[in-house]
């Protein structure tokens, strides 16, 4: 049995966005189109892949599209079915007898589902993944039995000859996937339970609902001495002692910057602001603003920030809100997304003896 695959990525994605085609949107640092190319090219039994694109869109993203020697790129057609037909025609002269047809708009495909489909395709002319519905389904004001209504996903696997001939036979008919052709003709279809996460990105929310969170941790401690100023979270706090540091020694912002960087494996504060002349006596708010800019250019969104400031003195009660408001403003998030907690060490250790102030921060981020 010889397998090939078709990845459909020639659509305009109009329902998703009028500006950037959904298949070239970045999700979790990767183009949507790349997820399908990677998954399918890593399946050993698939020997050839036709990637169907629309040239004017593709050209802008060409360099970012995943390369693999199995993949051949062709220009698509007006409708999805035209794109499939062009790909099937391209495969006509290869010796593949089974073809998997997949929408690039389904980036959350897992190998497990592909392998299950391939396995069952050995004994079936058409293997199609479906998922069940949980909503009440109404057709022409009549309630349908939702247990009998399915949503069909891709990839779908067919005997090459059969699907090619059905495409020719139904050339004039409108259809949204290949399983439809089998259903029109009442042909046998092997339906298997698909994957609820294998959603087709159609509307903006489809990606938002799949956002992956990642987390970063940060810690910092600074010595307290007389004749130094005390900055916590960018706020000057009147105190008999202040923190000693290369910059303004703000342990809250330093820990926060490290947690933000850590959440996406971008390094640490020293990677960006080493202890050199350039950053001597710099206000830490400057570092934070730079890192917030960096995250914004990478489309990284802060979900929430949780901060522990560990100080015996001063009592932070009246400063916690001022600090969190200030940090929320710099981070371009709402006050609801940031919490500042104060803690003493019960007079134990260096912090308890007012020799230092420490801070720990955890942040959660996701891709926009
Ligand atoms: N597709 C294609 N060629 C077309 C139309 C669609 O290859 N002429 C592909 C899309 O890129 C997508 C899949 O078929 O991966 C499913 O189509 P759909 O979800 O409708 O995507 P679009 O047509 O791009 O979106 P829209 O209908 O919102 O414009
Ligand atoms: Mg479409």
Question: How would you portray this structure in words?
Answer:
The chain has helices at 32-41, 55-61, 80-91, 111-121, 160-169, 179-184, 204-208, 251-263, 269-272, 284-297, 320-331, 349-352, and strands at 3-9, 26-27, 30-31, 46-53, 71-75, 98-103, 126-132, 137-139, 142-144, 150-152, 156-159, 190-193, 213-226, 231-232, 235-236, 241-243, 300-310, 338-343, 356-367. The longest helix is centred in the last third of the chain and has 14 residues, at 284-297. By secondary structure, the chain is of the alpha/beta class. Residues 11, 80 line the site of magnesium ion.
What amount of the residues lies in strands? 25-35%
Shape: elongated
Q: How much is the average pLDDT? A: 96
Structural class: alpha/beta
Low-confidence stretches: none
In total, the number of strands is 19
Radius of gyration: 28 Å
End-to-end separation: 42 Å
Bound molecules: cytidine-5'-triphosphate, magnesium ion
Helix content: 25-40%
The oligomeric status of these chains comes to single chain
Number of alpha- plus pi-helical segments: 12
Biggest beta-sheet profile: 8 strands, mixed
């Amino acid at each position: 049995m010889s397998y090939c695959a078709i990845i459909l990525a020639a659509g305009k994605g109009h329902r998703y966005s009028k500006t950037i085609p959904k298949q070239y949107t970045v999700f979790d640092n990767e183009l949507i189109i790349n997820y399908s190319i990677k998954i399918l090219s890593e399946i050993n039994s698939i020997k050839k892949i036709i990637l169907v694109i629309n040239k004017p869109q593709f050209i802008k993203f060409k360099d970012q599209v995943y390369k693999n020697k199995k993949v051949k790129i062709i220009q698509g057609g007006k409708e999805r079915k035209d794109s499939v037909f062009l790909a099937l025609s391209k495969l006509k002269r290869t010796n593949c007898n089974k073809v998997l047809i997949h929408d690039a708009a389904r980036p959350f495909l897992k190998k497990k589902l592909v392998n299950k489909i391939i396995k069952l395709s050995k004994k079936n002319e058409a293997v199609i993944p479906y998922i069940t519905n949980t909503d009440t389904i109404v057709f022409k004001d009549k309630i349908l039995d939702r247990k009998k209504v399915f949503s069909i996903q891709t990839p779908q696997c067919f005997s090459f000859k059969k699907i090619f001939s059905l495409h020719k036979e139904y050339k004039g008919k409108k259809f949204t996937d290949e399983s439809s052709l089998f259903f029109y003709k009442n042909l046998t279809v092997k339906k298997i339970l698909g994957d609820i996460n294998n959603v087709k990105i159609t509307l903006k929310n489809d990606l938002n609902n799949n956002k992956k969170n990642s987390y970063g941790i940060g810690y910092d401690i600074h010595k307290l001495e007389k004749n130094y100023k005390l900055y916590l979270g960018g706020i000057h706090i009147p105190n008999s002692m202040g923190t000693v540091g290369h910059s303004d020694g703000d342990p809250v912002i330093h820990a926060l910057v490290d947690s933000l960087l850590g959440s996406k494996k971008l390094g640490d504060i020293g990677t960006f602001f080493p202890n050199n002349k350039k950053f001597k006596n710099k206000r830490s708010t400057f570092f934070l603003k730079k890192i917030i800019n960096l995250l914004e250019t990478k489309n990284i969104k802060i979900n929430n920030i949780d901060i522990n400031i560990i100080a015996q003195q001063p009592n932070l009660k009246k400063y916690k809100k001022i600090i969190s408001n200030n940090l929320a403003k710099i981070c371009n998030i709402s006050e609801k997304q940031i919490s500042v907690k104060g803690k003493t060490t019960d007079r134990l250790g260096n912090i308890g003896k007012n020799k230092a102030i420490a801070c720990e921060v955890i942040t959660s981020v996701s891709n926009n």
